[in-house]
């Protein structure tokens, strides 16, 4: 038990990221409202960013802006920061695209709730 | 006579391979017979069956979703607990690549900010792809949300015109005064973050976002007509494409020269920062405008 707690404390940000990921994923699966599904998706994104950003940290490190001092102070790892940037860009693009799709759906069917949408689509088929 | 069946089978096979004769297929007949033996379900029966199938699915769906989520989270948690401790400087992620970036970014790219220098030069293709993703995202949203021709969607058009008339008659004094004071400073700050991204926190993405926010504030305060007077759809498309092409051209030139520094008079990361900033600003403003009015 103590070992487990120790491991959790050692990786507190990663554990928080996993919890956030689970919350977002469940939100995406269970919400009936399409906009709330997108919110769940964004929570999942945030979890991934948190994990990546926490991986790059080094105890006592400063932001990697290399001044005249050269390589003297300890800097954090710049690579995960760059990867987070990629993730944010993709997340923004996907969010905008899905919201646009949802707006089109709303114009067509007048609802964004999944169960009502299924009914409306079924009625239209008949 | 004894080898007749074998020969026949061989011939049948070669015929079949050559496509000269279709092998005799019984399945069609069988299916025909089976369908005859069972009465065709009527329309209402079919609909009812579909609905009950859906109900059964919906009854099990939440439990299955929770189960999948728990299993996934548990697996991820197990993996995460085996990671090296947070802040550990011996973790395998802090390898010689990161060290190289930190040590040589300043002299090889001229940027003191290692992240900016890294994403614009060492990993420039990645950033070029990001710019393309943003470009494509705006294009897709445009495809989905742009109102095709005026007058086709009468009710939307009427509503927008009505809102415009209200905004003209009773302008929002607070918003307009704030925007008048704030917009120049926002644009200035955006320029600072854009061009100072080499030596301080910032860069193309953050500066571009601030620039786009300035445009959004201006458009929200003074109306769409005011901004489309100088930032019309043609200008928008031109700026957006120019940013992407500038990036591609500059980065191609950089790779062509051997991907290891440029003549010092020419600051590559500064120019690429500007290109990225243009693309990002256009993207942010385009999302706002398209979602609000369905046009740029």
Features of the shown structure:
heterodimer; A: 126 residues; mainly alpha; Helix Hairpins; B: 296 residues
Q: Assembly state here? A: heterodimer
- The domain count of chain A comes to 1
Portion of residues in helices of chain A? over 70%
Q: Major sheet of chain B, described briefly?
A: none
Quantity of strands of chain A, as a count: 0
Number of domains of chain B: 2
- Look up the CATH topology of chain A: Helix Hairpins
Provide the β-strand percentage band of chain B: under 5%
Mean pLDDT of chain A: 89
Radius of gyration of chain B, in Å, reads: 32 Å
* N-end to C-end Cα span of chain B: 83 Å
Low-confidence stretches of chain A: none
- Name the CATH class of chain A: Mainly Alpha
Q: Outline of chain B, from the CA principal axes?
A: extended
Label the overall shape of chain A.
elongated
Mean pLDDT score of chain B, rounded? 83
Secondary-structure arrangement, i.e. CATH architecture of chain A: Orthogonal Bundle
How does the helix and strand content of chain A classify structurally?
A: mainly alpha
Largest sheet of chain A: none
Q: Calculate the terminal CA-CA distance of chain A, rounded to whole Å.
A: 59 Å
Q: Treating each run of at least 4 consecutive H or I residues as one helix, how many helices of chain B? A: 11
């Amino acid at each position: 038990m103590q070992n487990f707690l120790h491991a959790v404390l050692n990786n507190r940000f990663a554990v928080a990221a996993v919890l956030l990921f689970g919350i977002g994923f469940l939100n995406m699966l269970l919400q009936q409202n399409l906009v709330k599904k997108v919110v769940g998706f964004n929570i999942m994104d945030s979890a991934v960013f948190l994990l990546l950003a926490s991986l790059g940290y080094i105890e006592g490190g400063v932001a990697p802006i290399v001044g005249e001092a050269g390589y003297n102070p300890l800097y954090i790892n710049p690579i995960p920061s760059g990867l987070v940037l990629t993730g944010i860009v993709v997340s923004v693009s996907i969010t905008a695209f899905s919201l646009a799709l949802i707006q089109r759906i709303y114009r067509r069917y007048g609802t964004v709730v999944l169960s009502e949408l299924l009914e409306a689509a079924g009625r239209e088929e008949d | 006579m004894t080898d007749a069946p074998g020969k026949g089978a061989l011939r049948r096979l070669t015929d079949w391979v050559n496509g000269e004769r279709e092998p005799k297929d019984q399945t069609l007949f069988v299916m025909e017979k089976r369908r005859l033996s069972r009465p065709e379900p009527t329309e209402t029966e079919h609909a009812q069956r579909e609905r009950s199938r859906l109900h059964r699915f919906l009854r099990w769906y939440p439990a299955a979703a929770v189960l999948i989520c728990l299993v996934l989270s548990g697996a991820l948690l197990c993996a995460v607990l085996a990671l090296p401790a947070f802040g550990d400087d011996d973790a395998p992620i802090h390898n010689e690549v990161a060290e190289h970036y930190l040590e040589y970014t300043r002299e090889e790219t001229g940027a003191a900010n290692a992240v900016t220098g890294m994403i614009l030069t060492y990993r420039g293709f990645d950033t070029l792809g990001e710019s393309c993703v943003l470009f494509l995202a705006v294009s897709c949203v445009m495809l989905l949300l742009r109102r095709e021709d005026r007058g086709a969607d009468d009710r939307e058009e009427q509503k927008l015109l009505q809102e415009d008339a209200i905004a003209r008659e009773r302008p929002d004094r607070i918003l307009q005064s704030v925007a008048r004071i704030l917009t120049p400073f926002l644009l200035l700050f955006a320029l600072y973050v854009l061009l100072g991204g080499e030596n301080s926190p910032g860069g193309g993405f953050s500066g571009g976002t601030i620039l786009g926010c300035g445009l959004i504030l201006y458009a929200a305060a003074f109306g769409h007509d005011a901004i489309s007077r100088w930032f019309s759809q043609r200008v928008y498309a031109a700026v957006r494409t120019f940013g992407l092409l500038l990036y591609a051209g500059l980065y191609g030139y950089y790779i062509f020269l051997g991907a290891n520094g440029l003549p010092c008079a020419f600051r590559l990361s500064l120019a690429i920062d500007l290109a990225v900033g243009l693309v990002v600003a256009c993207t942010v403003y385009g999302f706002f405008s398209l979602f609000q009015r369905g046009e740029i």
